[in-house]
Amino acid sequence: MTWSWGGGPRGFWALRLRRDRPQERNQPMEIVLHDGREHMVGRLRFRVCPACRTGRIHDVWIDEDRQRQGLGREALHSLLDLHPGHGWSTTLQSRQGRAFFTAMTRETSTDFPAGGALCCHLRGRFGQLVHRLTG
Questions:
Q1: CA distances, 44 to each of 9, 56, 126, 132, 133 (Å)
Q2: Directed axis angle between helix 71-82 and helix 95-108, to 10°?
Q3: Are 15 and 4 in contact (CB under 8 A)?
Q4: Which residue of 8, 57, 63, 80 could cross-link 41, Cys pair, CB 3.0 to 4.6 Å?
Q5: Residue 80 phi/psi, 5° resolution?
Q6: Residues 8-18: tens digit of each pLDDT
C-alpha cells in the first residue's frame, strides 16, 4: 500500500508511505517514509491484532534533518486510518516520545499508553507462557 504527499518549509519534496508486511509471524509491520530519491527518512514499526482490535507501536524514527516537519504525525495518522477503532499502546517512551504521543493523544482522541497491556495474540510465546503461569 503506497501513499504520496509533499510539502515542506524548504520547497517541495515528495515522500512515499509504504506499509510492509513482515516475513515472519509476530514480526512488526512498518510504515516507511522515503524522500524523492528513495532514501528512508522515517519509519513507524508496529504490531496489530485484528481479532482483538489492538496494536502496539514499537517505535517512530524520523531522520534528524526531517524532524519537526510533521512526518511522524502523518505516519501515525496513516496507521490510525489503516486500523480504525483499534486500541493502541507503545513500548517505553523517551522524553521526546512522551511529548509526541501526548500531542497525538490530544489531536486524535486516541490514547497511546506506554507499556500498556497486550492481548494474548501480541504477547508472543514467552509472554503467553508467563501470562499462563502468573494468571
A1: 22, 11, 24, 31, 32
A2: 50
A3: yes
A4: 63
A5: -65, -35
A6: 544 344 555 55
pLDDT in tens, 75-101: 899 899 989 999 999 988 888 889 999
Number of Cβ within 10 Å of residue 106's Cβ equals: 9
Q: Whole-prediction pTM value?
A: 0.76
Which one of 16-30, 79-93, 115-129 scores highest in mean pLDDT? 79-93
One-letter amino acid at 93 equals Q
Give 103's DSSP letter. H
Q: Given strand 29-34, what is the order of strands in its sheet?
A: 2-6, 14-20, 29-34, 40-49, 54-62, 87-90
Rounded CA-CA distance 108/58 in Å is: 19
The Cα 16–Cα 65 span in angstroms is 17
Q: CA 125, 54, 33: angle at the middle one, nearest 5?
A: 95
Among the listed residues 109, 108, 118, the one whose alpha carbon sits nearest the alpha carbon of residue 53: 118
Cell numbers 514480526 correspond to what residue? 27
